[in-house]
From TrEMBL:
It comes from Natrinema hispanicum. The keyword Isomerase applies. NCBIfam families: eIF-2B_rel (TIGR00524), ribulose_e2b2 (TIGR00511). SUPFAM superfamilies: NagB/RpiA/CoA transferase-like. Its EC number is 5.3.1.29. GO terms for molecular function: ribose 1,5-bisphosphate isomerase activity; S-methyl-5-thioribose-1-phosphate isomerase activity. This is Ribose 1,5-bisphosphate isomerase. Reaction proceeds via a cis-phosphoenolate intermediate. The keyword Magnesium does not apply. It is an enzyme of class 5 (isomerase).
Amino acid sequence: MDGPESGVVPAVESTADDITAMRIRGAAAIADAAATALATQAERSTADSPAAFEQELRAAAATLYETRPTAVSLPNALRYVLRGMDGDTVAALRSSTITRAERFTRDLAQAQDRLGEIGSHRLQDGDTVLTHCHSTDALACVEAALEAGKELEAIVKETRPRKQGHITARQLREWDVPVTLIADNAARRYLDRTDHVLVGADSIAADGSVINKIGTSGLAVNARERGVPVMVAAQTIKLHPDTMTGHTVEIEMRSERELLSDEERAAIIGDATDGDADAKTKPTGDVDQAPVTDSGLTVENPAFDVTPPRYVDAIVTERGQFPPESIVTLMRELFGEPTDDPWES
Ligand SMILES: O=C(COP(=O)(O)O)[C@H](O)[C@H](O)COP(=O)(O)O
């Protein structure tokens, strides 16, 4: 149930919209926004019984959960906050939920600082890092290295189609790091000048596979061939508990319009009079699904890919750095055996 009858407050709907439209993006920022939205739901709820309050919070969590499928930090954040919802009255439930959400956002920021410090030890004075997409966890390592007085340079992949590399470049320039911005296709050539490939993650699977922005896996394979170490900066909130029981991580497919305008589509299929993609798209009920076309042209736009553990040298978390193959030990320690999601009851 969605909409006013579910009791979900407009602020939660608006956060969900922002995540779907990628005005809020990146796994850590999504988790932070989701936890904050649950606190807002708790604060503004008009539920008149504990059961109604809990039901509203579950509905709000479900609304947020439905936004984007790949970053596990989102369900991990929702689970964490809902499991802290405790009390026999609406007032007690409200205050425990808000306290828990606030603790989540505080811990998230602290974990990133700690991770940055740990990751910074891998970076030497004078090193050049090559980045892909925009990861606040990866940048935390750079920031901590700079604070320790090291000088770094960066080669920044543009990261098509949405060019998140520009956000990375802007942040690095604010820190006065010399930046060379390159097209994604140029990455292999620039590995000769690179000391570390440094990326973030949306999810880490139990076998140590890294799920991150599309293009990460190709970059990692090329880096291995060139002998350049690949460092993944990922707080433990990125560890995907369901993968311990064999579940795979869903890769988000985004709209074809991120790759192709209506005019470009019309030019390719040679029908300039019929440039409206919708007219050529069998409805899938979801704009983010790759559309099925009747023009013989299918556009697919996966947002993430899977890098096998053998191409990753280290996963840096706030709990230390790990070879990818041993990350499952940390997952067991942190999550135990997975249980049902609270918003599905
Ligand atoms: O792949 C992306 C963002 O993809 P998108 O732009 O599609 O959300 C980032 O590398 C991870 O989310 C980690 O980011 P952070 O370290 O900030 O959590």
